[in-house]
Amino acid sequence: MAQSFEIGQKLPATPFMVFNSFGVQMCLSECEKYVMCSSLNYNLKHFVCELNSGWKTESLSWINDDEYVYHEIPRPINKVCGAETCNADSRCVRTAFDTFVCVPVVCTDSEPVITNGIVQYRTYMPSSITYGCSPGFVDCPGTWESYAGQSYCFVTNQVLSWSNAKNICYDMKAYLMEIGSQEEQTWIRSKATQKLWFGVTDEGSEGAWYWENSRNAPTFTAWQPGEPGGGGGENCAVLDESSGWQDYPCTYTFQFVCEK
């Protein structure tokens, strides 16, 4: 190990970037590419590279950890990158044409505000922001129907997968319906005649069905004879045309009912 590495030490800081299955020289090379990288922690046992934006100071000292080595990289605030100078939020990248460019890796600008929108994903290489609707912004395409103190939205103008139907319900501040009694099921069937997704699933617990929203096991069921019978490939359920429950692959598309 090079003399500049502090063996058995690490900086107790939150890294701004972590790489797995990295060699120590690869870790050093990666740190040198990021202008904001001032030091690194390297885990010798698990080959994990942690890039830090700070150094050891009087208020932030090393801690002992036999699995780690620590290294500091003195550098100016800005870094020359070919004909460019990268700032602290950029990485110097060598292209296939043997030129150098500064690529932003951290953006300090706040996201643009979109009315009734929330940020779901953000990337920096390439730069992109994906927005979703704020919960409650999407409303029932029809009217909310009331039964026993609950409200139901019958989405019969489109068919979606179980997961997408669940997300639409979430956007309404609701959830895929939970059927609690024969009376409730009879009322639901009187409002819609096609197959309907509802909120029961055994995803992640094969054979043990539960309500996705409340996480409770159903106290009322109406499985058709031989159902559920799809095994691991059929983890969601529909209320069929004859008011029975059948399990289906969650990727199939059906109408659905949201409840709140």
Automatic annotation (TrEMBL):
Protein name: Hepatic lectin
Gene Ontology molecular function: carbohydrate binding
SUPFAM superfamilies xref list: C-type lectin-like, Hairpin loop containing domain-like
Keywords assigned: Disulfide bond, Lectin
InterPro entries referenced in this protein's UniProt entry, alphabetically: C-type_lectin-like, C-type_lectin-like/link_sf, C-type_lectin/snaclec_domain, C-type_lectin_CS, CTDL_fold, Pan_app
CDD domains membership: CLECT (cd00037)
